[in-house]
Amino acid sequence: MPVINNPPPFRPSSPDHLQMSLAAAMTLKLKEGLFYRQARLYCLNLLLTYPDGCRGNCSYCGLQKSRDGSFTEKSFIRVSWPTYDLETIIQKTLENRHRLHRICLSMITHPRALEDTLMLIRRFREEVGLPISVLMNPTSMQTADVAALKQAGAQMAAVALDLADEALFDRHRGAGTGGPHRFDHYWALLTATAEVFGKNKAGCHLICGLGEREEDLVQRIQAVRDLGARTHLFSFYPEKGSRLAEAPACPEGQFRRVQLARFLIDNDLSHSRVMAFDPEGRIRDFGLPPEDLEQWIASGRPFMTSGCPGGGMEAACNRPFGDGPPSAIRSFPFQPEEEDLDRIKEQLGWGAP
């Protein structure tokens, strides 16, 4: 009998294929769906992908290597990230360019990530022309590589430090998980990024609610700002299948206070040294006169998504409902309305003794 050789299953890989957020797929009309409250996505969020997946094992991440299933089947930020070939992505982006203000390429921990990212930056720069951000993976890079990203055409770059201090970083991303990441290397890459890209062109992802005190996170936000960079803040919300799947979400009041502090620090309206904290590290004074603070709260801006700007917006990368469900919005992807602001003030305990 003849031997039948079945072809191996197709396993998409960057740079010829990329994953994109479900919101991005909807924006490019590759997936059907409606955004809650007519939210819109303004940044095309793309993720490098490889058959052997990410080498990281971060406790809160859906892409961790110890999670069962193939890499492309794993959820990330609680939604699927469908995979498309690069030519389709470029064509669909051109067709829907009027909807977008920025492209963000996210690296994963993989030996090929830097080389492929540089190629992808060049193609998107030449063929699409939108501003490009890169969410770097420092473990796959050296500090000298940061300049190569800018030279290739990246306009901004960010580091997902995620944790407020070295001990928490090690517990959730380093030796505590059997992962390869090291806090000092991440901080060195962020420092280099701020120097290479310039003031307000470097970003640092930080997650609120992973065991840190508010004071510790505020001090880290200030340290990021002192580099000339800005913080893109996330509220921890457990990811199914991750090691922290059963952990509680970040308390709303805690996130609101840190959101407000982040906004004031990143916009040079206040400084951590003039803020006050209680014995448990909770923020008790934001270092502004009450009437000024009330005006900023009433504006709603501190509670909107913090991310890379574009199209005249503070955050073109507005990640609709990326760190909480629509029923309990943490980072608003649109201007909060009066009812939203009433709830925010209640969460802050604003006006309470």
What report would you give on this structure?
With 353 residues, the protein is an alpha/beta fold. The chain has a domain at 17-254: Aldolase class I (TIM Barrel, Alpha-Beta Barrel). It has helices at residues 22-27, 86-95, 113-127, 145-152, 166-172, 183-197, 214-226, 252-266, 290-299, 338-348; strands spanning 17-20, 43-48, 83-85, 102-106, 132-136, 156-162, 202-208, 230-235, 276-277, 283-285. The protein starts with 16 loop residues before the first strand and ends in a 5-residue tail after the last helix.
Short description:
The protein is an alpha/beta fold and 353 residues long.
Keywords, please?
single chain, 353 residues, alpha/beta, TIM Barrel, eight-stranded mixed β-sheet, globular
SSE topology sketch:
Blueprint: E1 17-20, H1 22-27, E2 43-48, E3 83-85, H2 86-95, E4 102-106, H3 113-127, E5 132-136, H4 145-152, E6 156-162, H5 166-172, H6 183-197, E7 202-208, H7 214-226, E8 230-235, H8 252-266, E9 276-277, E10 283-285, H9 290-299, H10 338-348
Parallel strand pairs: 2-4, 4-5, 5-6, 6-7, 7-8
Antiparallel strand pairs: 1-2, 1-3, 9-10
Helix pairs in contact: 3-4, 7-8
